[in-house]
Amino acid sequence: MNLFCTAVSRLGSRFTLVFDPYAKHVLHSALGRWIDLPLDLTIGIQSEDGELVALPFTREATPFDAVEQELRLCGVRYTAHSLKLGIRATLEVTAPFYPHDALTSTAPVFYFTLSVQSQPRLFWSSCQSPIGRGRLVVRLKREGLNTSPAGDALAIDYTLSHVLADSEELVPAGDFLASDSPPHVQERIVPLVDGVSVENDGISLPFDLSRGEGNTLRFAWCAYVGEPVLNVFGKPMRFLYTRHFAGIDEVVRFAKEGAEENLRKTAVVESLLDEASLSKSQLDLIRFSFQNFLLDSWWTVADDGEDWFSVWEGSCYFHSTVDVEYNNGLVYFAFWLPLLEKLLDEWARFEMQDEVGSYLAHDMGIRAKVGSQAYPHPMQVEENANYLLLLHAFWRWTGNLEPARRHHALCRRLVDYFERSDTTGNGFPNEGVANTIDDASAAVQYAREQVYLAVKTLSACHAAGQIAQALGDHGWQAQCEKLVNRIRETLDAQAWLGDHYAVCLERTAEGLHDPWTGEPLHGELGGWDAYSIYTANGLLYLLMSGHTPPVDLARIKQDIVNAYRHALTEYGCTHTSADKSNVWLSQNLWRDYIASYLNVGLPDNSSRYMAMEQVMNTAGLNKGFIDTYFTNNLCFYPRGITSIGYLFALCALQIDRTQGVVRLRRSVPYPCRVPLLPLANWEKGEVPVAVYELGAEGITGRVEGEHLLGNLRVEWY
Fold first, then answer.
1. 1 lies in a domain?
2. Residues 517-531: pLDDT tens digits?
3. pTM over 0.90
């Protein structure tokens, strides 16, 4: 594919490299995106007479004639061609990752493999004198970066007193750091092959193509930050990897001794995606967004051993915003559900109160401080519903009711808020209704009696009712069922407009106040009757655990199809047919998965979504995964990992361990393979796979590795 900016990063450890070929540099820091600086990185081939060609991350060398880019789940690969030298060079950067293996996944280590081979012809042109011998070269240059040989490695040291932050200009580190004194960072570039020369600013390896010698340079890039990096309720926290490594030398030892095993494990995970029957654009969206999710993650530990996991909301810097993690949640269901359990426990510490009742804070804090909501206003109904739906799905997929039991009383208070937020008696909340769609019209973002929030509240009450039943709380169960019925009656009687659901029941802005400014609104509420992609948003987690939400599914399907038709643009659907400039890709993906689970045949729009990512990361733009079009700036955003849901939606995977069942769609659009990641035995490295094959009787399905399901039975539907 064409070049565009892309990142590699580590789970919770913030060590991040953002490769920007248009600015000809790499954004680099052991403390992550926004706490980084541009690095001139020369990686290339030098001939014996001194001619140097390099990948486009430096201004100090001749660029290759052509460079290709290939995204990987755990890294990126570049293939570069030089006619003048008559060679082809390949660079692969790998960020090790293996589910449920914190050491492999958090260790601040990248692996680089640079290789060269002859290519004397480029298109119809031939190289007159292709080189046979030369050097593979890696050099670094940045103001404030100290580099020097240290035994068999290149030592890199720096202090982060200034950062790029939002402005892309140097500003004091300030709130981005956990203490007043900037942390000291140590890094090492460590050769993993023999014959490497360590120089003052880099490393190099001689090669001789005629003899097949030295044509691959492999090295590890290691980092270490020992000081506290995050304050959690006033407690200083260090990166989790400091639990395993006392300093940079121990990271280096791990990188060298564990290289083969770390790369093997990573290859296992990558192969699962490679072999899945997803389209190229679906795979690239998952690969690109996964690294952006990782670069936003924080996994830290206190001196007393307590650990903390949270995820920055990209360019907003909020920690584990509930509505964002509601979408990010799919990656935990795919790879690492214990991390979701941590979040469920952490959010329970952020209960807030208003005149209606108890609700969860929108977020846990901002930048380097965790402890209180930092967002300007709450989203009471939205976040309460998101929490209950995530808690229910966690229980059904794992069979573990303990988190729900621990937070039983809190969950009751969250449901109480739903009941009290309805002051008209029709079930639709009309208090505490500002929602996550914060760049939309008033009708979408904070109107009273929103259909989107009503359906999500209905779904959350349905989920809470099942939790109540499992906990033996029959009074709470009855309350939940009463709320579900009340909302359903109003939804059927008042919200349906013939071929779609209204955005909200309210038609007037009188009495509404903009939650951002506090200013009163007047007149008709424009867009109240528009086609919206959000109506069914609250249904997905119920569908994933095999529960038919108590709504009119025929109408829901019709609503999805008609909203798609009326809101579609170049890169996906806008919020509604009345919001023609605001596209959120993650919400398009969410809608796509619901459509798939309901067997609504929407087109695959992943090529539209990936096209927007490429536009936003070329020709001077460097936005990482960006969820929004030019009218907003949700960049380097974690929510792109919603794309991992393609693997669930492809076979409409349903898991309910409380019922002992795994359900898979009987037929799919084409013969395919779907790795059932949530059912993997990661300790043994075994993953069951749903296999669909075309035979004389049509497409049939089976599960390879069915023994891994234990007592779960497979049902085809």
1. no
2. 888 888 889 999 999
3. yes
